[in-house]
């Protein structure tokens, strides 16, 4: 019985991952940045905007970079996560919110020269995801087997244990 349970569990994991990939390929708008506890009150929400078929970009999902972002200043925001487990979230254009807000478990090694050096922890289909993230230029391989994350195209969140 234990063998069937384990096999069924793996089939379920594979189906969920395939679903995430399919959703990721669906065209959507740009991902929204996570609000980090603002120190000043935020402005009133904007009026709803009607979206027409002409407004929707059906292009391929691409890396979204913050406007006027200084990578060195942005990377320094994550110094507090060095030598800790954390969650990296990539910014995308043309990707569904649920797939775009995928939280990647990482170990933050250092913050240097406008990059965040991370090791990506074990996840299902790790190699395939790493290939996608490198092709999108969200991260680049470092010489020591870790990855350099672009802080203007991603953000780091604290790892919260349940």
| Beta-strand fraction estimate | 15-25%
Radius of gyration: 18 Å
- Listing every helix as H and every strand as E from the N terminus to the C terminus, the arrangement reads HEHEEHEEHEEE
Structural class: alpha+beta
Principal-axis shape = globular
State the helix count: 4
Separation, N- and C-terminal Cα atoms: 29 Å
Largest sheet: 6 strands, antiparallel
Q: Order of strands side by side in the largest beta sheet?
A: 6-7-5-4-2-8
Low-pLDDT regions = 34-58
Report the mean per-residue pLDDT as an integer: 78
Described by its quaternary structure, the protein is single chain
Helix content: 25-40%
Find the count of extended strands (DSSP E, 2+ residues). 8
Itemize the secondary structure elements and their pairings.
Layout: H1 2-25, E1 62-63, H2 71-76, E2 84-90, E3 92-93, H3 97-100, E4 103-112, E5 115-120, H4 126-135, E6 139-141, E7 147-149, E8 154-158
Antiparallel strand pairs: 1-3, 2-4, 2-8, 4-5, 5-7, 6-7
Structural commentary:
The longest helix has 24 residues, at 2-25. It contains 4 helices and 8 strands; from the N terminus they run αβαββαββαβββ. With 162 residues, the protein is an alpha+beta fold. Strand 4 and strand 5 (115-120) form a beta hairpin. It is globular and about 50 Å long. The protein has a 6-stranded antiparallel β-sheet with strand order 6-7-5-4-2-8. The chain has a two-stranded antiparallel ribbon with strand order 1-3. 27% of the residues lie in helices and 23% in strands.
């Amino acid at each position: 019985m234990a063998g069937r349970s384990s096999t069924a569990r793996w089939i379920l994991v594979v189906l969920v991952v395939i679903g995430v990939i399919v959703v990721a390929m669906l065209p959507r708008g740009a991902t929204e940045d996570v609000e980090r506890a603002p120190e000043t009150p935020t402005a009133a929400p904007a009026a709803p905007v009607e979206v027409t078929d002409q407004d929707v970009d059906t292009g391929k999902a691409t890396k979204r970079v913050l406007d006027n972002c200084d990578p060195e200043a942005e990377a320094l925001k994550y110094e507090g996560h060095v030598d800790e487990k954390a969650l990296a979230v990539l910014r995308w254009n043309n990707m569904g919110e649920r797939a775009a807000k995928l939280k990647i478990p990482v170990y933050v090694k250092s913050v240097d020269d406008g990059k965040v050096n991370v090791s990506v922890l074990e996840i299902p289909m790790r190699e395939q995801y790493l290939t996608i993230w490198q092709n999108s230029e969200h991260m680049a391989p470092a010489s020591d087997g870790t990855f350099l994350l672009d802080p203007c195209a991603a953000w780091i969140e604290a790892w919260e244990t349940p």
